[in-house]
Amino acid sequence: MITFQTLSDDHPDLAHSPMLRAALLTLQYTREHGAIGLTKTMAFKRVFVHWAVEHFDWPGRSAEEMFRYNKVINEYEFPPLELLHFLLIRLRLARHFKGEFRLTKRGADLAEAPGRLFSELVPFFVLEIDHAAYSRFEEAPFGKWDVWMNVINVEADHGTTEKALFGAFYGDGPDWDNAGWRQMAAFSSCVLRPLEWAGLVVLSADELAGKQVHHVFKTPLWRSALKLDTDAQLQPISVQ
């Protein structure tokens, strides 16, 4: 069982969520400007896409890096924004009207309510979205969120590696440098990346013996926002 706790609007751990931060910025930008212009295909116009790239502070997608190779960026070239656009429309926090992206009353209300917005946005994003649909190969790993999150809750409690987590679910062997790399990619794209974008885990990479090792750590937001069946198995965190 997975339960997302309701957090207060001023809860400090909400700052760990890139998806929440981007949603707040988009809702507040729309409220301040009245609307965001849309292209004929109903994507955000480039002026807002560029603003989003510069302000979202998205992990692994800094504005400096993105503009280094492309002076002009469309919505589909910034996947977090494309996905967020879909989520805000799907959750009826915004709507398309006469070629513009406009807030609904509920969207305007939640623009200043981070805790309530998190409760609306993040559980739906993590648990309900088909994450394989926007992954590179559109391949999903076998499993379900209840199992994934309860096992990660224990295995990553004091940090672990992507390979070790994969092995806990599917057995040792597959890795990025052998024939199992597509299985690793599916697990990373459909399980770890959504959790990172939600702000529940943080991923990092280190070089070890000429090979990249991907580390996975639970964030403080995981501990404050989630109630899971395996919580009783966790060891207390020692404070030095």
N to C succession of SSEs: EHEHHHEEHHHEHHEEHE
Number of H/I helices: 10
How much of the sequence is in beta strands? Answer: 5-15%
The percentage helix is: 40-55%
Instruction: Please tell me how large the radius of gyration is.
Output: 19 Å
Shape: globular
In whole angstroms, the N-to-C terminal distance is 33 Å
Total beta-strand segments: 8
Describe the structure in your own words.
The protein has 240 residues and is α+β, with helices and mostly antiparallel strands. The chain has helices at 18-33, 46-55, 63-69, 79-90, 105-110, 114-128, 145-155, 162-170, 181-198, 220-225, and strands at 2-4, 36-37, 94-97, 100-103, 160-161, 201-208, 211-218, 226-228. It has a three-stranded antiparallel sheet with strand order 2-4-3. It has a three-stranded antiparallel sheet with strand order 5-7-6. Strands 1-8 form a two-stranded antiparallel sheet. A hairpin with a 2-residue loop joins strand 6 and strand 7. The longest helix is centred in the last third of the chain and has 18 residues, at 181-198.
Features:
alpha+beta, 3-stranded antiparallel β-sheet, 10 helices, globular
Question: Helices, strands, pairings?
Answer:
Elements: E1 2-4, H1 18-33, E2 36-37, H2 46-55, H3 63-69, H4 79-90, E3 94-97, E4 100-103, H5 105-110, H6 114-128, H7 145-155, E5 160-161, H8 162-170, H9 181-198, E6 201-208, E7 211-218, H10 220-225, E8 226-228
Helix pairs in contact: 1-6
Task: Provide a concise account of the structure shown.
Helix content is 46%, strand content 14%. The protein has helices at residues 18-33, 46-55, 63-69, 79-90, 105-110, 114-128, 145-155, 162-170, 181-198, 220-225; strands at 2-4, 36-37, 94-97, 100-103, 160-161, 201-208, 211-218, 226-228.
